[in-house]
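Run log // design_07
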């Protein structure tokens, strides 16, 4: 029996790596004033078929439940977020800044960087029209990635303006019913053969390719770029009109984060979605946000040697060379745990070499040796990294608040 294709088992090493990603996400996002929320992993099917767009609807894990209700595992967080905010927006001061770390499910073909479940950091802001919110959001994404040790040589946020493209389609007489198809063709243009994209874009293909090459003009983009410059983050962003995003609900500035080498899929994506709350829940509030996935991020960090190998699982490993010292060792172990340390030891008599091996394989920071010195009220404490060993009185251990 194996996990389903595209789903992961998180053995302790993988779980520790995941925890490392989540802790960093939460630390940086809360530093930007985002507060955490969560919603249900199973939602009513309607929530996603209405406004997210065909692409994601084709990837839903949906079924009819035992009460004959059409339901689906969430493929993304944004509609749940919109639903929750719309229901209680009066209870919160605007702009509201919320973050979540949901597991989401998409029936995609599993491949490098794409699985059938993944975790996302979502940061969203509601109730602010000003582009200063877009600047704040993009800066937060840059800082989350920088917190892992990635630099402007490793990643770039490619930024564009979907409103520019909507205006372009309007000006060129494209009926509204075709906008989403055209935007999708632009979104996929880098992954598809040029002739396929040209066919989808029809008579506008040449004009659009010119914009890809030369750029378009958008005051919104200039304002956001200037804001990021003021923050000293200009090296992390690049204006690129080929970015429009695959999801249907975006309305303004949109962006995607990529590794500079172009080896991996998108690391993160987001933008403004000023009409989603109104369209889904009749609450007219501007909104914007991003989703950063754990899969591509971990691949990129690994390739750069930025994923810690052995996570520290223990503060102390208590080594017991002779069974006659076990009772005193148990007393000490308990005291160490009471002071908030993570402590483990061998449950049965074992050679010291084996006990040291266990300590190292568990990433213990220190090894406490309880041997004959205990009769004089002393133990030896060895710091694993430096191999330095000192003697400590057990009275000191008992009397200090933390050790
Ligand atoms: P998204 O671009 O569909 O946006 O997903 C965001 C990120 O999730 C992607 O850049 C990628 O890293 C990761 N991701 C997506 N699909 C998969 C997959 N099958 N396997 C592994 N990772 C994946 C959204 O989901 C929007 N709801 C983000 C957002 C929040 N927009 C506004 N607020």
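design_07 sequence
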């Amino acid at each position: 029996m194996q996990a389903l294709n595209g789903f992961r088992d998180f053995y302790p090493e993988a779980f520790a790596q995941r925890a490392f990603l989540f802790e960093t996400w939460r630390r940086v996002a809360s530093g930007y004033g985002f507060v955490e929320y969560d919603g249900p992993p199973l939602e009513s099917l309607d929530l996603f078929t209405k406004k997210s767009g065909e692409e994601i609807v084709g990837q839903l894990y949906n079924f009819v439940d035992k009460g004959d209700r059409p339901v689906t595992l969430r493929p993304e967080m944004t509609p749940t977020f919109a639903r929750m905010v719309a229901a209680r927006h009066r209870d919160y001061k605007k702009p509201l800044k919320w973050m979540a770390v949901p597991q989401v499910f998409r029936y995609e073909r599993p491949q490098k960087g794409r699985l059938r479940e993944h975790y996302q950091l979502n940061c969203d802001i509601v109730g602010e029209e000003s582009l200063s919110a877009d600047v704040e959001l993009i800066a937060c994404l840059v800082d989350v990635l920088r917190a892992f040790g990635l630099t402007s040589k490793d990643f770039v946020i490619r930024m564009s303006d979907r409103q520019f493209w909507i205006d372009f389609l309007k000006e060129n007489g494209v009926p509204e019913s075709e906008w989403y198809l055209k935007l999708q063709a632009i979104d996929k243009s880098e992954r598809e053969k040029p002739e396929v994209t040209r066919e989808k874009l029809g008579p506008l293909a040449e004009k659009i390719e010119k914009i890809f090459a030369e750029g378009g003009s958008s005051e919104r983009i200039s304002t956001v770029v200037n804001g990021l410059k003021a923050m000293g983050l200009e090296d992390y962003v690049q204006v690129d009109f080929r970015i429009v995003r695959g999801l249907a609900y975006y309305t303004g500035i949109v962006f995607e984060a990529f590794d500079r080498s172009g080896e991996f899929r998108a690391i993160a994506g987001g933008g403004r979605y000023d009409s989603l709350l109104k369209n889904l829940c009749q609450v007219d509030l501007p909104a914007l946000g991003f989703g950063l996935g754990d899969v591509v991020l971990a691949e990129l960090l690994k390739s750069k040697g930025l994923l810690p190998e052995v996570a520290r699982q223990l503060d102390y490993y208590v080594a017991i060379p002779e069974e006659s010292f076990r009772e005193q060792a148990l007393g000490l172990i308990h005291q160490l745990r009471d002071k908030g340390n993570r402590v483990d030891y061998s449950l049965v008599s074992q050679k010291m070499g084996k006990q040291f091996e266990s300590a190292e394989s568990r990433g213990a920071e220190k090894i406490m040796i309880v041997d004959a010195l205990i009769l004089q009220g002393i133990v030896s404490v060895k710091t694993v990294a430096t191999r330095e060993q000192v003697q400590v009185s057990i009275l000191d251990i008992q009397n200090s608040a933390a050790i």
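The chain is about 40% helix and 20% strand.
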